[in-house]
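Late entry, citrulline complex.
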Amino acid sequence: MVPVSFDLFSDASTSLVKQYLSAELFNQLKDKVTATGFTLEKALQSGIINPDSAIGIYAGDAQSYQCFSSIFIPIILHYHGVNLGKKHSTDIHLVDFQPPDPEGKYIRSSRVRVARNISGFSFSNHIALAERYRLEKQVVSVLSALGGDLKGSYCPFEHCESSQFKLLKQQQLTFEKGDRFQDAAGINADFPKGRGIFYSDDRRLRVWLNEEDHLRIISQETSADLAGLFNHLTKAILELEKKLPFVRDERFGYLSSCPTNIGTSMRAGVHIQLEKLGQRKELLSSITKGHDLQIRGTQGEKTRVENNVFDISNSRRLGISEVDIITGLNEGLKALIDAEEKL
Ligand code: CIR
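Prediction complete; structure with ligand written out below:
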């Protein structure tokens, strides 16, 4: 671990944590420890090692958000742009609306995911191996009991020579070791031990275990039926939360290791090919911003856009409900398709 001192961030760093961590705040927080032994030093590792971090801080457990609240709160306010005086309310129920691209002319695939962490365990960047295994066992026993169209199988990554793993990898259903930001935070410790993926028989539902968060619950398909996709995910979340105690806070909503994911912890997005808008970046950006959407590279965060295929997803996660995110995405996509057709 890089030892911390106040002048620990390189001059090149433009991270939010560098912006908000004054010398006074640093001295106030540097000796604090959560019940699981998480410290400011560990929280800052990724931001110190990677000067190009946008945020630069991770929480090691649910209590980190209270223990180190004086640095998490300004970062949350800045990133999420919300008023933290209000409670964050959750609204997950079945929805019904027309798909934004019924003929499938533009949208190549759609995906909705939420992150969940389980009460009583440290987060993925701070969890001991024995605990990772205990968590895996607890979650897999619940996932294995799912029925109907959620019924599926679990593939542990430790047996990566298995034909089951190889097939899933070929189908791009597995996840890889985390990037250098996650690595420096501690998320890759002991990889691939305790990691794995649960996938429904029809492959629409996937649950990643022990990745950046304890669970990433994902619903994905090649059509643009956003309502169907959201409803499918909703069913899975509602079933799982009957059996698993997910960590939730009144103000911050569902808690995640990265403060960018708190709140709904939901990212709903599509891969959409916009040949004409791709040449009109300002228009593309003003429509997406106007609908609280963000554009990422074709292969995800911090990657480039290939063949005018944009990854477009919600930018708001805290202070907005799950249902409002999916309906907002639908409206934004309709506006983008409309603009593309008019060009
Ligand atoms: C950064 O500070 O740039 C990285 N820690 C990643 C921040 C975004 N986090 C995320 O998507 N989970």
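Residues 86-117+216-227+245-343 form a domain with the Creatine Kinase; Chain A, domain 2 fold (CATH 3.30.590.10). Will revisit in the morning.
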